[in-house]
Design goal:
There is one protein chain. The chain is α/β, with parallel strands linked by helices and 396 residues long. The longest helix is centred in the middle third of the chain and has 24 residues. The protein has 15 helices and 15 strands.
């Protein structure tokens, strides 16, 4: 198992706190393995095996636990009296009205609850009232570049980056070695499960071909400004009849399934959120190569996607920045303080360098500003704007 130290430390930090711990993220990003790692930690710390109860609701032997009452009664009977019981409920969204069972277990003094889910809908509706203020969400992503590199410490860094993009950052793909056919089949299984289970079935979508057209557009336009109207107009121009409302429904379902992340725009000078001009990024670029192949893959946009995900991992709230007529790739906010990031494949051409720097120079404050590229040059500074090799930054 690949150590997921950042996520594991969060679970350890929340251990025995009066909060329900909910790990969310795209399917196969490592949520179940993380729970197993934490259970191993508990056992090493002296917790008796009987005090650990783990249920994965995608396993056939748990098919009868489909409603909240049967789940609650099953767990209640298994609790060890007068001892702390650590309860792990994996893919809990498969249980009808699961929040009622979770709420009933939470109010018992001898329980500590850990849940995983592959769809953001679990935070809407009744759970918002029943469990409001009682849970903490731990968003999880597939492997970071640093985690990926820890498995192949002897390989060339450029080759590892290429494989990270094409072969995917899903942990299990590492078990498949360099066999691209096996990796493609595996990614196809993930993609189809997400689309059919978490999008089509959940949202009761009838026109799957139209949904796939929207997905292909978004996968092909990661990092580009993509309004619902622009997507609609593009598809209509291709002879596909679709409404703005339908596109909005599809976008909501795709972001709820964590296959895509939406980033809104922010006016840096006016210090206000903009209503139009969202950007979308993929949870894993291997899925893009699976669906679209390598043709017309904009490597600058691929790098931008990787940086977006890494900033998410590091706990930033992210926006696309607008400064006058210039665009800043990422306004990254943590604890109320912004940092600014520009991503470019290369800036060795002087004109390109000046263009990338100009956006950051337009920002009227002295908060940290970074230009991340794949150029293998020494770090540089341009009046406080730090140019850093992106791969070095990813390995920090």
């Amino acid at each position: 198992m690949i150590p997921r130290t950042n996520y594991l430390n969060k679970l350890i930090g929340f251990k025995d706190k009066q909060l329900i711990k909910i790990v969310t993220g795209i399917r196969r990003c490592g949520k179940s393995t993380l729970l197993k790692m934490f259970q191993d930690y508990l056992l090493r710390a002296g917790t008796a095996p009987a005090q650990i109860l783990s249920i994965n609701f995608e396993e056939p032997e748990n098919k009868e636990l489909t409603d909240w009452e049967s789940l609650y009664n099953y767990i209640k009977k298994a609790l060890v009296p007068k001892k702390k019981n650590y309860i792990f409920l994996d893919e809990i969204q498969n249980v009808g009205d699961y929040e009622r069972a979770v709420n009933g277990l939470f109010i018992r003094e001898n329980t500590d609850l850990y849940l995983t889910g592959s769809n953001a809908w679990m935070f809407s509706g009744e759970i918002a009232t029943l469990l409001s203020g009682r849970y903490v969400e731990i968003p999880m992503l597939p492997l970071s570049f640093k985690e990926y590199c820890s498995i192949f410490p002897q390989q060339d860094l450029r080759r590892k980056y290429r494989d990270y993009l094409i072969n995917s950052s899903f942990p299990y793909t590492l078990e498949l070695g360099e066999n691209r056919d096996l990796i493609r089949d595996y990614l196809g299984g993930i993609y189809n499960t997400i689309i059919l289970k978490d999008v089509v079935a959940r949202k009761k979508i009838g026109d799957v071909l139209m949904l796939e057209s929207v997905i292909r557009f978004l996968f092909d336009n990661i990092g580009n400004i993509s309004s619902t109207k622009k997507i609609t107009d593009t598809l209509v121009s291709m002879g596909r009849k679709i409404s703005v409302h339908t596109v909005e429904q599809y976008l909501s379902a795709l972001t709820d399934s964590f296959i895509l992340y939406r980033m809104k725009r922010f006016d840096v000078k006016g210090k206000m959120h903009l209503k139009t001009g969202d950007k979308y990024y993929l949870a894993d670029l291997g899925l893009r190569y699976f669906l679209l192949g390598s043709k017309d893959a904009d490597q600058g946009r691929m790098l931008e996607n990787v940086i977006f995900l890494e900033l998410l991992r590091r706990g930033y709230e992210l926006y696309s920045g607008k400064v006058n007529s210039a665009e800043v790739d990422f306004v990254a906010v943590k604890d109320g303080y912004p940092e600014y990031y520009q991503a470019a494949l290369t800036v060795r051409d002087r004109e390109t360098l000046e263009r990338e720097l100009s956006s950051l120079r337009e920002i009227p404050n002295h908060n940290p500003k970074f230009l991340l590229t794949l150029d293998e040059d020494p770090p540089a500074s341009y009046n406080g704007i730090r140019q850093i090799n992106a791969l070095d930054w990813l390995l920090e």
